[in-house]
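User: Hi! I'm a student and our assignment asks us to look at how structure tokens line up with a sequence. Could you show me two examples?

Assistant: Happy to help. In each example below, the sequence comes first and the structure tokens follow. Example one:
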Amino acid sequence: MRLIAGIAGIIVVLAVLLDAFETVVLPRRVQRQFRITTWFYRHTWVPWRRFTSHIRSTGRRENFLGYFGPLSLIMLLMLWAAGLIFGFALLQFGAGEHVQLSNEKITFGDLIYHSGETFFTLGYGDITPTSPVARALAVIEAGMGFGFLGTVIGYIPTIYSSFSRREVQISLLDARAGSPPTATELLGRVGSVVEQQVLDQCFRDWERWAAEVLETHISYPALSFFRSQHVNQSWLGALVTILDTTSLVIAGVDGLKKEQARLTFAMARHAVVDLAQLVNARYDPNQPDRLPALELERVRKDLTERGVRLSEGAAFEQKLTYLRSLYEPYAQSIARNLLITLPPWIRTESKRDNWQAGPWDRLIQAKNLAGLGQKAEFSARVDDHF
């Protein structure tokens, strides 16, 4: 019995250590049939997502979803700690020869308690290992507790540093592509500039951002569950907006070169395909079309009014359809798994960008209208100044 407990303890400890190493230290995606972290997220995210689907308010739903990412980190660390404590308790049971202060019989529950106080280096001394093997295990577990604390101290700040870098670029997209961001707004605002270097530089920045998102999300899969600061923003929405915009440029925009758009499209498509596998997204052939014919005509008309002319003819539409087929199924599957709303190709209604909205705007607007005697919208006057 003690031999079986010792073998089981070795398996549990090694499994937890391997999983923690692959999750925290190893900077690549691990493809294995069973992993503790993968099992954990599948069995916590699914019920969380089902419960969230019953919340009707979009704001409340996003707020509730925003708790999962940070909370899952704490729960995962607790699961690792519990696994190590249980594994060492099995090893101590296999090693035998412990003494309790009250000379009572040592039970397995007592050994779990002893393992816990050793792991967290409390050192009450009410249960003492007496055999050389049991003492060695106690020393190893205490050292592992220090290592675990160091992992926690280093892991969480690294996660939040990666999250912060991701969100900075998403925030910059607000004034360039609207809220939520759309390809029509981005191309209309930046693509209409006389110097194409402005658009190309924008694409270069987003090419690098897509590469960083791919690297950080593969290294730290929990980042996929971290929501953005605003309800109408997300890392997936930003990625899809860039893919939509570069698809239009590659398919054909009069007067715009395609070289940088191709490079950005390739990197962003790489990111969305790999991240779809990371979140266990599955292909659904019945996904709705994001850009039906009438919607494409609206995009064409809106861009023409802004001075950006899309190419005419069937060749443009065929190429655009092909490019969309390279990334939309993956993006839609990720969105379904993570409950993220993908941005449209064009705004369905007139809304102010996030930077234009503030808690005092209505009061300021009323004061200005009363002073000026005008009925113009406050947001329109702000746009005139810029």
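Example two works the same way, sequence first and then tokens:
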Amino acid sequence: MPSSQSTTKPLALTLGEPAGIGPDITLMSWLRRRQENLPPFYVVGDPSALARRASRLGVEVAVAEVDVAKAAQTFAHALPVVGTGVRASAEAGHPDTTSASAALASIKQAVADVQAGRAAAVVTNPIAKHVLYGAGFKYPGHTEFLAELAAAGGRAPHPVMMLWSEALAVVPVTIHLALRDAISALTTELIVDTCRIAEAGLRTRFGIARPRLALAGLNPHAGEGGSLGVEDQAIVAPAVAALRTSGLDVRGPLPADTMFHAAARATYDCAVCMYHDQALIPIKTVAFDDAVNVTLGLPFVRTSPDHGTAFDIAGTGRANPSSLIAALRLAVRMTAGRASP
């Protein structure tokens, strides 16, 4: 595991939804910085929001507003916060009219910092998409917004969502779509593009010389030779063939119900799944507390806790910071291109 000095640049941690558990797990992660051997990070956002949450939680955390250049040296004795100039007045569990603007300003500035070389990577706290949608947010989620910011006026990259843990890594080809829409959106070309980006990310960010990808079938029993649906033969199998022809180590389509037990997981580095729940149910079963959301295909490293805003427990002290701690650690490992254990 890397030491807290393994990178010369700090990580930029976004505020996330100010009314959610993002502030809670941020404060708790900083309090555990020594016992968890965490790398230096700074929060991008309103320092007063973090100070209020610390007071509500009854934890002693010195919140220091600093310039990015002083964040790493401040980290040892205070939680460094780089202000955005956008107020976040929402209280725990209750988003208000400042929530969306505060969350978006934080994401934009964190990305700008990493693109300018001031930060090593972006780690994002959870956002509340329904709050952002109410403020006119036009993107399906974090991933697509980050891709647009990464484009900087050019062509946006194709972002690929990976959920990673020491026990299992999964990539959904289609993400936040109703199941009927996900099936309609699934194409051979989309599978091929997603697998190429996942394979490249596993090589360059995770240090796996020849990644092994296992593709799940869409239908029960991977279609049972066409008797339980033709999509696996007509869409998934041609993608596997094309990827193998290009030299990638790919298998499939495989019956999804036998892909995720321990012996099966040992045969691949990443399971590529056809829709959201096919990927997220197994990883949240295997690694609920410490799975990390990773965005591949961006020109910078981005990780995030694999959970939502949990408004119902925000400000109660019951939030578990394990996934954020794992995301901070993984971000550093990915910047060094050695995220595999």
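Here is something you could point out in your write-up. The first helix runs from residue 22 to 31.
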